[in-house]
Every structure is written in structure tokens, then in C-alpha cells.
Design goal:
Elements (H helix, E strand, L loop, with lengths): L16 H21 L6 H8 L3 H7 L3 H23 L8 H16 L3 H14 L2 H19 L10 H21 L7 H15 L6 H8 L1
Helix pairs in contact: 1-2, 1-4, 2-3, 4-5, 4-6, 4-7, 5-8, 5-9, 7-8
Amino acid sequence: MPPVPLATSPRKRPVQARSRATVETILDGAAHILIRDGFDRATTTRIAEAAGVGIGSLYQYFPSKEAVVAALIDRHAAALTRVFDDLAPRLAGRPPAEAVAMIVAAATDAHRLHPALHRVLNEQVPRIGDMARIRDVSATITSHVARWIATLPLAPGRDPAILAVLVERSIEAVVHGALADGHDRLPRALHDELVTMLARHLAPDTPRQDQRISKAS
């Protein structure tokens, strides 16, 4: 017998300002419960209590706790996307080392928007089945990076879209790993090696990042 699909779609979308405020309050309550108790111990009743709303108000918008968490993932993903939407115009005309350092900084800022919630949601995305939303965030970041790379004097045959995937996934993996290890941001040596590696892959004559800092000082 096939598994019953989770009810992760909201019952209705808030239209009026008061309704939107109620949904935001519910999502704030869900974030608090997920961080404090974890997904397995979270219930719609606990979420409603943490949000200070009646359980009926929660069920007016969400059929299950999975639907609440899916909406929370959507909200968090939108916040991550805005970080890179704001960055994209500032990449124009930047040399590789400078632009890559800016992308690393943006990735770090995105992970630090709400680090405890970020960790919990990353754990729950596969269970909720919202991988498409995370792929959308990655695709948006990669698209911004690809547009910048396309302005560089690349050797014939090099594809900006492929290079952008390499840059985005390398930075995401290193930043995520460093913050998961308890660092507030990338250690300087790791940051410099990452920036140098990616910048040199895009422009082989790029000096090492630590050499750039020494010359500037």
C-alpha cells in the first residue's frame, strides 16, 4: 500500500493584513517550538500555544504541522533569496577575487539569518518533501552568479552556467560546514583558500587572497 502523502499545502492564503499577521505569528510560534522541542515533539497544539492563537485559527490556515513547517521553509527560503537578490547588482564589474569574497560573505549572512532555525529546517526539508523550494533558492543564486561570470573574459568553450554551479555549491558546502562546526564565520585561512581557489578557476592569473590583503595594507 503506497504511503499517504503529507498534507503540506496551506488550507487558504491570507489576503488581508490581519490574516497575514496571524499567519506570521503562527510561523513564529512554529519556529520557537521546532528549535526548542524538535520536529517530532512539535504538535499543532504546541505551535498554537507558542503563537498565542487558538487551535482553530491555526487549522483555518494549515491542515497539519507539516503544512506549517512547509510554510516556514518557504518563508526562510524567501529570506535567503533576498540576500542574493540584493547582492546581484553589486557584482557587476567586480574582479573574480572581490566578487567571490562578496558571494562568500552573502552566503555567510544567509546562514546566519536564524542559524538555529536554519539547522532545524535543513534537517526537516527531506521529511516534508519541500526539496523543490530549496532547489529554487540554489537556482536563483546560481543564476545571479552565472550572469556575473558571463561578463568575465573567459577562455572559449567555458560555460558560465556550469562555472556558476561550481562556485555556488563549493561556497555553500564550505560555509555550511564551517557554521555547523560552531564557527561564527569562515576562519580567515579557510576563507582565503576558498576565494583563491574559485577566483583562480575563473581567472588563473588571480593572486592569492592573502597576498592581495598584504599588498592593500
